[in-house]
């Protein structure tokens, strides 16, 4: 079977399934809508962490050991910047810097974030389209027991240590879906919309906060399927479970499923959570931990198969 | 003896004598006026090659083998940028990038180039003040048989290969001396002004093109002494001799001395050029090739001794 597939993704966790989808789908079939709520300006550079993670992962440039950033990375810049008294809390790899400098230069020359991202993914030989949720700025801010923190300050500088009270996506109300996002949802060949196993609150909610996005998901004829980022009450990576507990939510696949209730047709959980049942929602269980490329491709095929059955 | 000393300097050649002067003078006695005609924006970054060479050289961060840039440098950024299709003809070392990013950030925040440079030299523990000739942009442009080229395009991209017909310092007419430049010339404790052995046409002339600079040299009570960058008809480094020939000038210490006629009280040549005599100009010969730090300090002491005798 063929047709178009949309995946909504944040960084690391989502990019794993995005890579699996990219490998099992034909070139041009996959459109990945990337969270840009984590985007920020640092040292005068426009940094798009989730777009970069997707680009590096799909181009095979990601660091499989560290789990973030580029492989074969060096750190001379950050060391030299610290020596000069510059702001060096955000570790910028020397190779990674290239994408920030090139993006910043192109944006300053008048290109949209969509155009820059499209040029980069083509240059890197990536088959999937990678599209920012919006070309306008949306900034995830974390309300903590230490007050409001910009996302990267919470995530990197404070290592997710402050207790989370709430979240806010500044600018989301005024943002418009990137043109390619609207086009992807309007495509009659659309056969599946997949919410990747990213943090629902930090990575998927900012995408859903862009006006029109929820309506696009609700209105599309293709099945909408989410994959749980929580396995047996644990997050595979990152602060999802900790943050859920702080927000007074039980860290479980069920909580995530209920978070997406009304928006998705089906929910994929790990075999460890196979017992889950929610009225009006198809639940499918399969191994969801993605270690190898084979794991990623297998899960991608599973989700696409589920979509085909639901169609 | 004590008192203030001003040195006019470009990059590599001038920085060698500047380092010698810095080491033999007491902290706070030396003000180096740096050429900024080579400054340019590249990839959205403000690059000041001669200021950086001075900072690296005086901080002991310079690469003694390569002769430019930083020691212990890595090149991951430039490789990654080429991979992304970015403009990678200007080799930016990973550590070197830090100074461009930090400078660009501070300038965008409203600091002057003088303020940024002062902060950097203090941070790097440099005793000498390093002052741009002007806080306003002056751009050296090279008129060649291929047309007008921006300096870095001529120097780096085209490796000084085009034949030079003329030079122009765009913006020099409107530029004002940086405040610390004027202050240094007005200091009653000024005991010497030294034109370092930099390229007279590419590195010293842009400084002299800033309105008021020639008058400041002519009007100051302290002796003005130039050191020849040409030894026995050869440039120690760089395109000086080639360019002189292309401009129809004999590449010789005498040609340089005559270029500075009326502006300097004395001219220091290498022993190889000891025979030189010019009416109305004191000529002093000494070994001027600076390989070791000892060479640099010895030449610095020689020039300062000459200034003391002329005072």
Automatic annotation (TrEMBL), chains A, B:
It comes from the Bacteria. One of its GO terms (molecular function) is LPPG:FO 2-phospho-L-lactate transferase activity. Keywords: Magnesium, Transferase. InterPro entries: CofD, CofD-like_dom_sf, FbiA/CofD. CDD domains: CofD_like. Its EC number is 2.7.8.28. It is an enzyme of class 2 (transferase). Pfam families: CofD (PF01933). This is LPPG:FO 2-phospho-L-lactate transferase. The lineage of its organism: Bacteria, Pseudomonadati, Pseudomonadota, Alphaproteobacteria, Hyphomicrobiales.
